[in-house]
């Protein structure tokens, strides 16, 4: 038909697919060669802006790549979403075509519309063979696209330690911070629990004390994974146990709040300060009670106390109706979560104080959250039953347990102090609360 004048650049009207692309998709080698010999346009694009070269890469035929490039096919043409033939090869893990396109001169340092280049895609796929080909061809390891992530971060997300090591050996910065999310390679590996990647990083110069944009170090993230090997790896490299994040939380406070007794014990052994306190802490149970009381008993509240509470809320830019526990410690967080083993470690090994001067005491936090076992233990350790909150008419632990409807905690507190009575100013609140619920 070509000999009789058939149009070698014909496109069907429905899908607008060039005849050359159709030959490649159908894997018709004879037709492909005839079309090339007849002078068909090798750079014509079909759906999604894909050229014949891109399709040859996708069907993983390196011989056809040679033929098309010989006929002046554009190696770096970009189709839909700015993807090149090399990007398609890496995405489909067509290693022979990756090698061939690199040999033919494809650009290994470009990014598509989402900031993903060939090296980033190989790292994301965990494809060590493609990644090594690209590195040997000079792919830049520290360039990040619009997403802010470079290949090293993607390799960590794929949890492929071989890719991580290969990138480091070719100059990847193990301590960089990405521009958009503010994360570092080591904090990402720790947060994901990617143990093998984590050890590759710390064995190759990652600084264990560098924080992310939220001032969190890897040590603060380790308790969330409950992977003891990560914590051990950080502690053996002198991770700072005293530093706090932007919210005022230390690694010990996070471990205590999560109920990780093993982590708490190890941090205490490293002399983490069990008495360190953060400025403000929002307790969900207290927040509910405060909001309920505010709507029904505004007159009953101490006006200066309410003004102070609102002032703290406004100054910190957080929840206006939240309750802020001033001076909350690791012990308070463990009590709020009902983590008795952590409570015992903090008191018996860490010398944590069961009574604090401001905010809610550990006993109050245990009472408002209905943690009876913690209430019993704190009472035995001498926790003050008559300690009052600094705002909201001076609530005591017994009032908080009543308002939260924790019958066992109420009984435990009454048994501990049979002579104590509910303050008169609290009785109307308690009665109305029970009537309402």
TrEMBL record:
Q: Which UniProt keywords apply?
A: ANK repeat, Repeat
Coiled coil: which residue ranges?
none
Q: Extract the InterPro entries matched here.
A: Ankyrin_rpt, Ankyrin_rpt-contain_sf
Q: Where are the ANK repeats?
A: 48-80, 114-146, 147-179, 181-213, 247-279, 358-390
Q: Does the keyword Repeat apply?
A: yes
Pfam families named in the record: Ank, Ank_2
PANTHER family from the UniProt entry: ANKYRIN REPEAT AND PROTEIN KINASE DOMAIN-CONTAINING PROTEIN, ANKYRIN REPEAT-CONTAINING PROTEIN-RELATED
> What is the official name of this protein in its record?
Putative ankyrin repeat protein
